[in-house]
Write a structure and sequence with these properties.
single chain, 5 helices, globular, binds 1,3,4-trihydroxy-5-OXO-cyclohexanecarboxylic acid
Length: 147
């Protein structure tokens, strides 16, 4: 199985941005955590991070050509604004789990709108970095059941 982990805007600033919300660990720490989990689960994983909406759309489209089996995506603030990311996930029809480090549903009202959620097979929020690995476990089961 081949997975792609996509992180959107400001997630490269993990460890620097609002540590009281997102923690002190860095984006590289996050990548290493997920890489170790993928190794344990015997699956392939690659990573992409961008602050630019169009680049995120391009990465989702590229996943189609790369025959990626599942996408784990935290779009950052584009979660709450991007119809383009929603449409890209719908277009490629690759099972996608929406992940948020913080519990978006208990934060400001504007964070309670999610466009990608309309196409995601699952949403995991408020579990910190572990949410990405939980998303991977979910996708492994989901893909096993939907072969
Ligand atoms: C986030 C939550 C979003 O509302 C915010 O804009 C982010 C990070 C999270 O992981 O909790 O950039 O997606």
């Amino acid at each position: 199985m081949k997975f792609l982990v996509i992180n959107g805007s400001n997630l490269n600033f993990l460890g620097i941005r609002e540590p009281e919300i997102y923690g002190k660990a860095t984006y590289n720490d996050l990548v290493e955590l997920i890489r170790a989990h993928a190794k344990e689960k015997n699956v392939e994983v690659s990573f992409m991070q961008s602050n630019h909406e169009g680049d995120l759309v391009d990465a989702i489209q590229q996943a189609y050509f790369d025959k990626v089996d599942g996408i784990i995506m935290n779009p950052g603030a584009y979660t709450h604004t991007s119809v383009a990311i929603l449409d890209a996930v719908k277009a490629v029809k690759i099972p996608t789990v929406e992940v948020h480090i913080s519990d978006v549903d208990s934060r400001e009202d504007f964070r309670q709108v999610s466009y990608i959620r309309l196409a995601a097979v699952k949403t995991i929020a408020g579990k910190g970095f572990d949410g990405y690995n939980l998303a991977m476990d979910f996708l492994i089961d989901f893909l096993g059941e939907n072969k």
